[in-house]
Amino acid sequence: MGELRKDPVLGRWVIIAQERSSRPGAFVRKPHHEDKTDPARCPFCLGHESETPHEVFSVRDKRTKPNTPGWGVRVVPNKFPALDEKHRLMKKGRGVYDMMTGFGAHEVVIESPNHHHEAKDQTIGQITSWLEVLQLRVGEMKKNEKIRYALIFKNKGRTAGASISHPHHQIIATPVTPKRVREELVGAMDYFKLKERCVFCDILDEERSYGQRIVYENEDYISFCPYASRFPYEIWIVPKAHGIDFHTQSVKKSLPSLAGHMKHVLKRLSDVLGDPEYNYLIHVAPNRFPRFGYWKTIEDDYHWHIELFPRLTIVAGFEWGTGFYINPIPPEQAARELRGK
Amino acid sequence: MGELRKDPVLGRWVIIAQERSSRPGAFVRKPHHEDKTDPARCPFCLGHESETPHEVFSVRDKRTKPNTPGWGVRVVPNKFPALDEKHRLMKKGRGVYDMMTGFGAHEVVIESPNHHHEAKDQTIGQITSWLEVLQLRVGEMKKNEKIRYALIFKNKGRTAGASISHPHHQIIATPVTPKRVREELVGAMDYFKLKERCVFCDILDEERSYGQRIVYENEDYISFCPYASRFPYEIWIVPKAHGIDFHTQSVKKSLPSLAGHMKHVLKRLSDVLGDPEYNYLIHVAPNRFPRFGYWKTIEDDYHWHIELFPRLTIVAGFEWGTGFYINPIPPEQAARELRGK
């Protein structure tokens, strides 16, 4: 059974998940680069529904049964979950150390039956469909009061951590607010204390007036290469409307616009960098049940957004040791290339 | 010219270093795995001294001249420096953003003329020799009051970020205390406030009494797989004697003991994992000139140490998005394998 352990100096939590060491390619002693799962043996392809754990949700033809073909988007628990709702949530001390049982959830959202079409090749309708499913699943997970945070993320390509190449997203729900997210929340709160404005709204203003880091803008979303980009061609996609959560009705109305935006940006990224591997993740507000001790001004100070980074550079000792990043491509140059004009 | 940029939400600094995009393999659109620089074209090999910037220090036969053969350890500025002492240190605002010129230092310490011998194959004398040089160079950099921190690190192998396979260390000196280091310093300080003890000394006690995460112990050093290991087979090497800096006279006396310790641990790591790629780094106290605003209790609360991690797993979207790590190998199991008994 997995467990969470807390670093006594940094307060950083680590998931010790021994089950995952049996995952294909999870633990490569030498990195390897067979990039594509063979569709004939892909557990996410049509007709292979029995090779995954039972589906928890699907968008499917009403005449078909769960765990059979007929679906458009399909959600299954991760076969090698980092965290699991079956564990009872328990916390205890061990000498100077703290631990917690590996309570949480870990789901896979299979974007479409098509093994080869990444978002850039999908229809706006298909993208909108899995965006709606992501909203729904996160909303469901956040009903549990033991869950503090739910992160939606995408790993595309082996170097980016995907063990299966069939297009999919993952959601991990955790019983603590992760350190990196907490830092962002606290940073936004501190900025608000000082200025009584949302730092992300201010960043959007700055980027629109400066212009040179903008990648794309449509009706409801803006994407740009952030001023302090950690990675070459890092892109943030930010909704123009201030809002702190992704799984809301008002965001739902803008999903076709987000789908078009993502398709455009991912297509440009692929054109400029030759189909790179990448990660992206959706940063949202944590769960806010009163007994958690509220983030008082969070409705005003935080702003959900997507952070996307192609995996081009290698993160080495200096970066791990300092939290400093060395980025050889200025974001102004990256944005110019990505805009294509 | 490089510059430092600060993330307005997280306070994380990023080095935008366009010069480094011309570094061989610095910016790989597809990862590649030609692992070894050809010795005939290696700028760190004997007889190729003119292919590096002029040496700033060397351990060499007194009858030989700088930048010629005859050396045992050789220090040169990085040819593609992330930071450079030639830049004047300047800070300014840019709209909502903060920047700083790319002032600092970036040196390469070539461990020996031998292209193939990593520390595990070197003599204790050779290892002691480059450890002394590392001490010396860090001591030199820290004399500059504009330098806040100097990080010693080692990248072994392409996946770990080494662009040249000839054994070498790097030192980067920065005009700010890096975020990750500051968090560790603050964590140690907070622990001291509560308990009036050094958290690292307490961890050493705990590890020695528990025993199962210990990898090796000799006269002056203990290594163990930390309780909340981020990575499989992560190892910390910690001096038994409390001390906050690496470049001191008292550490100098223990260098042969550290050399033997490192040789043993790196040999075991290689035996167990089949010569893996790895990073390690030496965490020490920051520069402490009075005008920086001291860390008041730092002499008591901090403890220098080495953090080492083989590069076996892939850091994916979840880790980047949360600061959470998923480690499939419990440190107790890793330590058992590394102890070999």
Describe the structure.
2 copies of one chain form a homodimer. Chain A is an alpha+beta fold and 341 residues long. Chain A has 2 domains: 3-179, HIT-like (HIT family, subunit A, 2-Layer Sandwich); 181-339, HIT family, subunit A (2-Layer Sandwich), CATH 3.30.428.10. Helices cover 26% and strands 23% of the residues of chain A. Chain A has 8 helices and 15 strands. Chain A has helices at 124-141, 179-195, 199-210, 249-253, 255-273, 298-301, 317-322, 331-339; strands at 3-6, 13-16, 57-60, 71-77, 91-94, 97-101, 105-110, 149-156, 168-174, 214-217, 221-224, 235-239, 278-283, 305-310, 325-327. A 10-stranded antiparallel β-sheet of chain A has the order 3-4-7-9-8-13-14-12-11-10, sandwiched between helices. In chain A, a hairpin with a 3-residue loop joins strand 10 and strand 11. The longest helix of chain A has 19 residues, at 255-273. The model of chain A is unreliable at 28-35 (pLDDT under 50). The interface between A and B is large, with 94 and 94 residues. Strand 2 (13-16) of chain A pairs parallel with strand 15 (325-327) of chain B, so a sheet runs across the interface.
* Biggest protein-protein contact in the assembly: A-B, 94 and 94 residues
Q: Name the overall outline of chain A.
A: globular
Number of H/I helices of chain A: 8
| Multimeric status of the protein | homodimer
Radius of gyration of chain A: 20 Å
CATH class membership of the largest domain in chain A: Alpha Beta
Structural class of chain A: alpha+beta
The CATH homology group name of the largest domain in chain A:
HIT-like
